[in-house]
Structures are given as structure tokens and as C-alpha cells.
Write a structure and sequence with these properties.
By secondary structure, this protein is an all-alpha fold. It is built from 10 helices and no strands.
């Protein structure tokens, strides 16, 4: 193993009175400045969390199905950075606009083939289905009901079933 030279910690408060990230976070993942509650963070919940997501957080997830950049997007310091010219960092067009409905019609092999060599693979198929169900529930479009009902009946995953039940309830409450 190589020895790593650590940078000096940043001592300066670059934020000043800015609270843009705290105010913008839809799940209130920042209880106070410089403190992130990962259990409320959309990026953590949609990528790393391997269980059902608490109902109280689902509305704040909105249509995010894999990660979230809200706090990064509103940070004034991030507006100064330039986009990378490296080809490896470019978005993959086929995944740029994900068709949520198509996720429910894919079997394990189709999901693997579509996402195996992408970051989306990290959350696995059940994680993506859970996240897609929450996003569809937040859209409150009655056209999604048959798809969600079918996923509820067919899925063996408790977190997918939980998300489908919640999504159906959201749509039917409209």
C-alpha cells in the first residue's frame, strides 16, 4: 500500500451566513450547518439504503431515483467550477432520461445488461424499483396504478412492496 499524504484540513468557513443547502434540501438532511444526517439524504437513501424508506421522507424524494444534487446545485461555490472535458465523465445518453415504467418490465437479466457497467448498478434492481415506485407515487398520475399494482403483486422484495403500497395510496388520494 502506498503512503498517502493528507491535505491540511480546511480551517476557513467559506459559507459565512449562507444556508442555501440547508434551505433547499427537501428531506431536511442538514439539521444544522456543517452537519449532514445521511439517514435523511436523498443520495444515501436512493443509492446505499437497502431497506424500505420511511414514509415521511418519500414526498421529499420527488422524482430523484438515483442520487440527488440539490445541495450541490444551490451552493454558490460550485458555480465557479468548470465542467470536465474528460470523456469518461460525460453523461450516457441512454441513462440521461430514464423511463421509470420500463424498469418494472425488465427482468433481472435485462436490468443487468442495461446497467451492469454504470453507476446505476450500485443500487441493484430492487433499489431502482423502490425508487421508481416512490417517484411515480410523487407524480400522482392514475395511469401508473396498474403498473404499481402489478409490481406490488409480483415483487418478493419488502422494500419494493412498501414503496408500491405508498405510491398507490398517494395516487388514489388525489
Amino acid at each position: 500500500t502506498a503512503r498517502l499524504q493528507y491535505d491540511m484540513p480546511i480551517e476557513r468557513d467559506h459559507c459565512g451566513g449562507c444556508k442555501a443547502c440547508l434551505d433547499a434540501c427537501p428531506t431536511d438532511a442538514f439539521p444544522k450547518p456543517f452537519v449532514l444526517d445521511a439517514s435523511r439524504c436523498i443520495s444515501y437513501l436512493t443509492i446505499e439504503h437497502r431497506e424500505a424508506i420511511k414514509d415521511e421522507l418519500k414526498p421529499g424524494i420527488g422524482d430523484w431515483v438515483f442520487g440527488c444534487d440539490i445541495c450541490q446545485d444551490v451552493c454558490p461555490w460550485n458555480h465557479r467550477g468548470a465542467l470536465s472535458n474528460e470523456r469518461e465523465f460525460e453523461a450516457v445518453d441512454q441513462h440521461n432520461r430514464l423511463n421509470l415504467r420500463s424498469l418494472f418490465t425488465m427482468d433481472d437479466e435485462q436490468f443487468r445488461s442495461a446497467f451492469r457497467k454504470t453507476p446505476l448498478w450500485r443500487t441493484k434492481r430492487d433499489g431502482m424499483l423502490r425508487n421508481a415506485a416512490i417517484a411515480l407515487g410523487n407524480q400522482r398520475n392514475r395511469e401508473h396504478l396498474p403498473l404499481l399494482q402489478s409490481a406490488l403483486e409480483q415483487s418478493q422484495s419488502e422494500m419494493v412492496r412498501d414503496a408500491c403500497i405508498w405510491a398507490i395510496e398517494q395516487i388514489e388520494s388525489e
